[in-house]
Specification:
RGS_subdom1/3, 182 residues
Length: 182
């Protein structure tokens, strides 16, 4: 039966992985090596309390900082909503596409992964935005995801970002940077 329905097996495997991770997920990070890019120990030593504190100034400040982005991604994983950030990042990358030949393929891939109903990492957007994006992808331009990306950005900013700032991940990270100073 599995060979006849490989897409179901893939979905089941993904669900088993997610369910298996439930017992390992935690809103606490005492070891930040898992969330920081490149050389984590050096990265944590270079991250100042001032930089980490600035992430609370605005959501865009957080997104523009390499380690802020990594910490926010780790937080979203604990809430099983990292697809929002991954979609936002995919759109940012998409806007840098200079090859018109690659534009259509990239647009289709982003649409199928994040926007289409039952997409593997479907983001939570309203029907009108989904349909507008579907039409935009038919004749893709660098702005074809703007409305959907804006909605997802707004959702993260109003919903996930305030929870991140109150999270143990963020407060533990701040504590670690402050402890280093003493």
């Amino acid at each position: 039966l599995t060979p006849l329905l490989p897409h179901l097996d893939h979905r089941n495997r993904g669900m088993r992985t997610r369910l298996g991770c439930l017992s390992h997920k935690s809103d606490s990070y005492n070891d930040f090596t898992a969330i920081l890019p490149d050389k984590p120990n050096r990265a944590l030593k270079r991250l100042s309390t001032e930089e980490a504190t600035r992430w609370a100034d605005s959501f865009d400040v957080l997104l523009s900082h390499k380690y802020g982005l990594a910490a926010f991604r780790a937080f979203l994983k604990t809430e099983f909503s990292e697809e929002n950030l991954e979609f936002w990042l995919a759109c940012e990358d998409f806007k840098k596409t200079r090859s018109s030949a690659k534009l259509a393929a990239k647009a289709q891939r982003i649409f199928e992964e994040f926007i289409d109903v039952q997409a593997p990492r479907e983001v939570n957007i309203d029907f009108q935005t989904r349909e507008l994006t579907r039409r935009n992808v038919q004749e893709p331009s660098l702005s074809c995801f703007d409305q959907a990306q804006g909605k997802v950005h707004s959702l993260m900013e109003k919903d996930s970002y305030p929870r991140f700032l109150r999270s143990k991940i963020y407060t533990d990270l701040l504590s670690q940077t402050q402890r280093r100073l003493s």
